[in-house]
TrEMBL record:
Domain Alanine racemase N-terminal stretches: 10-230
Organism: Zhongshania guokunii
Protein name: Pyridoxal phosphate homeostasis protein
Pfam family, one: Ala_racemase_N
UniProt key word Ubl conjugation: no
Length: 237
């Protein structure tokens, strides 16, 4: 098989896994978006995913993402930034993406708001929460999320949509579910604090834990290796 037919077959397999997982939780996740995470992958690989019906593409590295965006500018793609954000790179993020999932501090929110070109409309934001309090991991603490949400909701060029999490790595499905349940509960508490906000997004679930994420109400799955194959370099945290 060529790489392209493999990618298309992998996406069909993921869609079957999603359908199977949703049998038990379709009421939790009526609108589930499958995002293909294409870090380290070529524009050609992304084009194959588009042929299989993917519309949402997630990228972690800014320079790499912008180069692929130029190659794919004639395609209809909703681009999501999901990687670490340095404050001197916020302008490029604000100008090149529809969504940012990896915001974990106030300074980044303020800069994205200032630098978002108004003609593009508000930038969709997920706050990244470090749900297991891992010292090595990006993401705000649970305690810091309400104040960040309040700030995000006050900024006119941003549209706060919800939370993103990369829980502690575990193969235990019960532990995976507990971690994702904690993210869901945090989003529910934000909804109670900010009833006027449209907090509709739980960005959670990767290749190794998507079933658990669906069971706990994920609305955006971020799938890389099970679509494009294993990566040469390890996934950054
Ligand atoms: C790489 C990455 C993914 C995809 O991970 P896979 O295990 O390859 O599916 C999802 N989210 C983030 C933030 C990533 O960096």
């Amino acid at each position: 098989m060529t790489a392209s037919t493999t990618i298309i077959a992998n996406i069909a397999a993921i869609q079957a896994r999603i359908a199977a997982a949703q049998q038990y939780s379709a009421s939790l996740t009526p609108h589930l978006t499958l995002m293909a995470v294409s870090k380290t992958r070529s524009a050609e690989d992304i084009a194959a995913a588009l042929k299989a019906g993917i519309e949402h593409i997630g990228e972690n590295y800014l320079q790499e993402a912008v180069a692929k965006q130029a190659e794919l500018q004639d395609k209809n793609i909703c681009w999501h930034f999901i990687g670490p954000i340095q404050s001197n790179k916020t302008r490029t993020v604000a100008e090149h993406f529809s969504w940012v999932h990896s915001v974990d501090r106030a300074k980044i929110l303020s800069r994205l708001n200032e630098q978002r070109p108004p003609a593009l409309g508000p930038l969709n934001i997920c706050l990244q929460v470090n749900i297991n309090n891992e010292p090595s991991k990006a993401g705000a603490s649970i305690a810091d999320i309400p104040a960040l949400a309040e700030l995000a909701l006050s900024l006119p060029q941003l549209r706060l949509r919800g939370l993103m999490a990369i829980p502690a790595n575990t193969d235990d499905p019960a532990q995976q579910r507990r971690n994702f349940a904690a993210v869901r509960k945090l989003l529910n508490s934000l909804r109670q604090h900010f009833p006027a906000a449209q907090l509709d997004t739980l960005s959670m679930g990767m290749s190794g834990d998507m079933e658990a994420a669906i069971a706990e109400g994920a609305t955006i799955l971020r799938i890389g290796s099970d679509i494009f194959g294993p990566r040469a370099s390890p996934a950054p945290e």
